[in-house]
# Entry
Amino acid sequence: MPAIITNAFRTYNADNFISAFSTNKVYLMIGKADSWSGASAGQYAEASPSDTSIPTPKDTTVAPFIHYNDMIAAKLIAATDVSHVVKRVDWTSGIVYAEHDHNQDDQIDQTFFVMTDQYNVYKCISNYGGVASTSKPTSQSSTIFTTADNYRWKFMYEVQQADVLKYVTTDWIPIKHLTANDGTVQWTVQQAAVDGALEHIDVTNGGTGYVNTNTGTAQAGSTSTTIKLASGASATDDIYNTMTVYVSSGTGSGQIRTITDYVGSTKVATVAAWTTTPDATSVYEVMPAVTITTTEGSGAAARVSSVVGGVIKEIVMTAVGTLYRSGTATVAGGGGSGCVLEPRIGPKGGHGANAKTELGGAYVMMNVRLSGTEGGDFAVGDDFRKVILIANPYAGGSAATATTYNASEMDADTGNQIYVEYRAPINRASDQTEDVKLVVEF
# Structure
């Protein structure tokens, strides 16, 4: 039967792996002081490896015995030295970034989020029809915002300085979900997220011929149920019927109404009653109307915000609603045809509710610093070529609990070797610190 391992399953396993460091003793062991040479059927397949041609580990039953024989020393990995990480994507001008798409298979494998040089991490909500990003996002707003290049971004979190030092590499950045207020903006973002908020409607086809639009400043003479459009508005009766008029600034700003009747000779459009009647300071936009249909969720409303050359370019939400799990959107009016819209459903909890699951925290990094001799257990002046994780080994006949052990102190062939990595030789000096970073994928 067809089946998949979901990204949720991968993240779940990564969560459990990290939790294990609080209840188990996991050590980083270094080993193999001598060079790579000769055949070794039990631990690699290569016949003639060298320190410049590193072999690939084999998972045989005899390999753990060989690794123990090669042991130099081991250091306990603290729970505070383990973190979820995601692949690093630096924001770069001129790149087209993928946008969040609830129908995309394996979304976490797409380049739909970025980190800037300020260590801010953003999710791309809209790439404005697939154009290149040219304006670096900088806002730490808890709401989705638009940059000058018409990209829409969601600020997710800022990598804190302590985490930069421990977990940021050229390939990886740390990520986490907060369970308590730590004073960072990420907590504000998490708290502001709304489950099922419909925060974006994508224009997958802008159509053609949407030329019966009008923008301008209202004339004096509007009433509680009308707006008197600018003198340059169409002289054709009913041409704006079924379209919406949105007051973008001035008196009555933020109101949107559907036009039910239009008289070309007077420029008067009839609408449902205004909360605040527009006047001669009211700047408006008459655009095709957007209708949202769903059996799941309520409260969302949207408007067409940009029409270029008769092509609909952008939809803006005027209300995002709650609990949307599906839906359709259509446009009406404006004289055109062919526009296709796709409401984009957010992740469980809403955008920003859980950066770890939204961006794909199925990778775990362990950071261990080896400083000098580590109190005498780690030899200096020699090389090591193996890095191995050992869970719950024994020392002196009982469970190991000390921070460090040398090869003679840890009981051979105990514990479980859960990760093996072969490396080029790393020489250790008494005044040297090795910052060992291991990344595992689930």
Observations:
- The chain has a mean pLDDT of 96.
- The helical segments are 7-23, 63-69, 161-167, 185-192, 355-359.
- Residues 201-344 form one domain.
